[in-house]
Every structure is written in C-alpha cells, then in structure tokens.
Amino acid sequence: MNLKNKSVYIIALSFIIALVLFIWGFNFLKGKDVFSKQRIFYASYYEVGGLVKSNPVMINGLRVGQVKDLYFHPDNQRSILVELSLNTTIPIPANSISRIFSSDLMGSKAIDLQLGDSDIMAIDGDTLQTSLETSLKDEVNAQVAPLKNKAEDLLSSLDSLVMVIQTILNENAKQNIMSSLQNISNTFKNLENTTANIDTMVVEEQNRIASILYNIELITRNFEKNSNEFNRIIGNMATFSDSLVASDLPGTVKKADETLAQLSALLATINRGEGSLGMLVHNDTLYIELERTAAEMNKLLEDIRLNPKRYVKFSLF
Length: 317
Hints:
With 317 residues, the chain is α/β, with parallel strands linked by helices. Among the domains are: 1-35; 37-133, Elongation Factor Tu (Ef-tu), domain 3; 250-303, no CATH class. It is built from nine helices and seven strands. Strands 1-4-3-2-6-5-7 form a seven-stranded mixed beta barrel. A hairpin with a 6-residue loop joins strand 5 (97-102) and strand 6 (109-114). The longest helix is centred in the middle third of the chain and has 34 residues, at 136-169. The radius of gyration is 65 Å and the shape is elongated. The model has no long low-confidence stretch (mean pLDDT 78).
C-alpha cells in the first residue's frame, strides 16, 4: 500500500470518528445517550402548560429521561399525547403518575414520575396516569378569590349603609325620628308618674297592706296549728275513698236499678187498674162506702154521747 492510499484511509477514518463523536455529543447535549437502552412510555394531557421536547423527566428530583415528543392524540384531538423516553432500568409501577410541574421560577416545565405502589409493573408503550401542577397564576387566583369576594361583600355593605344614612338624613325621616324620640320621652315621663303614684298609694295604704299581711300570717299560723286536724280529715277522706273503692258499688247500683224497675212495673200495674191496689185507686165505690160508714159511725158516736143511757145500763144491786 503506497503512502497516498494510506493517507486517504486515515482521513476517511478520522472523518467517520468525528461524525460519530459529533452525533454522540449532540445527543448528549440534548440529554440522549445513544449507547444506553431507552424505554418509551406515554402520558395523555388536556393541557401541557408549555411542556416542550427535551424537557427533563425526573424521579424524586433525579433526571432519568426526557420528553421525546408531543402531538395530538390520534383518537382524541382534544388531548395531547406526550412520549416519555427513560434511560433508567428502575421498575415503574403501573399506577405511577406522570405530573407536569414547574422546575424553576422562570416557569420551565418538567415531568415528575410519582411511583405508585402496584405490584404490576408498566412495560414499554404503556400509558401512565397524569396530573398537572397548579400554575402560579391559578395559585394566586385561588388566594385572591376569597379576598375579592370579601371586598365585594364589604362594598355592598358600605353601599347599603350609605343608603340607610341618606334615608336617615332625609328631612321627613329626621322629623319622624324626632317625633319617635319625643314619644319615647313622653313614655318615660308617664312611667315615672305611674311609679310615683304607685309609691304614693303604697304609703297611703301602708296600714291596710300591713293588716292584710298580718291576716295572711294568722291564716298561715292557723293552718300550722291545725295541721294534725287537716291530716286527720285527709286521712278520713282517703279511708272513705278506699272503702268506696272496696265496696261493691256497681252491684249496689245494679240492685237499685232492678228495684226501680220493679217499682216502675208496680206503678204501671196500678195505673192500669190491675190488682186490688189498682182497683182501689181507680174504683171509687170503696171510697164512697168508707165515707158513708164513717158518716154513720159519727152519727152513732154522737147519739152515744147524747143518749148514753140508751146504750149503757148501770146496776148497783
């Protein structure tokens, strides 16, 4: 091999080596390691918040890969499919979450893989669960919204207060308020006069009130002195009540009802003129005979009184 051909081979080999080093360095600067095995996972988002290619993918703050590509989902144009390239062999549980977050104060985005606790591991081509970190704007809005609502409520209250003050300062309203205050003052004066009258009446009727209280005290003392008698009366009433309860009151009432029923039947028989008593009540022949007999007895007694010798004879010997 001559020197010229040898130089050509050296130049070609040097060019190939330089090209390989260039490709490796370019990919290394982009975060790719062409000599390591990569795993591909997918994550579907409705909002990526400014995520772009080559943004890092981290696990517990350690970079383990990068965003390889982003494009609209072919089956759902409203979602964005993010392709994650991982250059680590760490197992990824199937329920792990791919969360987009801000990696610095400038708002640069990155993906944090929050490893799950499933026993089933994800394999290349699986789609992971997703979440999106709340942006600084959303955080500020969440903090400011309650203050905004309170400020609006305060302004509304102030507006109502101003309306009330304007109503009060109205001339008619002022007159009504003054009239109301005057009425309140008159009411207090009337109460004061009434109180004074009551005091005067109490002073004037002090003796009568004392007498009434003394009588009440005497009544109370009498109750105390005769408490045994009251207790005895109450005991007797209780005994009577117990006796009344123990007695066969329903039976007695039933017998009384039966007696009244029999008496009623007897009176009905008499009214109908049945029996001797009925005939006596309804037939006046016996009455006439008795009256005539009584008249004759009176005549006989009168004749005996006037002519005793006719009926009584005395013989001494």
